[in-house]
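Z., the sequence and structure:
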Amino acid sequence: PLTVADYDAKEGTITIVTQAMGVSTRKIAAKEVGESFADVAGPLGRPSDFTAMSQQELESHKFIFIGGGVGTAPVYPQVKWLHEHGISADVIIGAKSKQMLIFAEQMRAVAANLYISTDDGSEGFHGMVTALLEELVTKQGKSYDTCVAIGPMIMMKFVALTTKRLG
């Protein structure tokens, strides 16, 4: 649970979101403001597929992003990139409780519509992100053709099953 969630090229900084679970992430979490790392390698992997699309192709899509827990962190820069390119995207953020929500304010600034779901109902929709997605599509008439889901494996599995069932 470690991701680069934002950057500022002018300042030469990156924002890292981490959940202290193992030796390395606990060392990162123990850093004080102003301390630094000797090196950073990354980001690794490849950019999102939509970064290679033309403006016209991007405009033809109806995007929804679903971030679960710390999976919200890598959703943010993707939605921010789309926003900077004039593309609207709806976002669902899910967490166990209000206290565990991250990036809500940042996401509100770049998402066309931000929906929050908490398992305990302490903020936004009371229930799973899949139930909220289903409500948006079946009761509020929303439609999407592209869904990006990042979070716990079980959440991503059920988002995939839900989007398949909803078409």
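The radius of gyration is 17 Å. The chain has six helices and seven strands.

Let me know what you think.
H.
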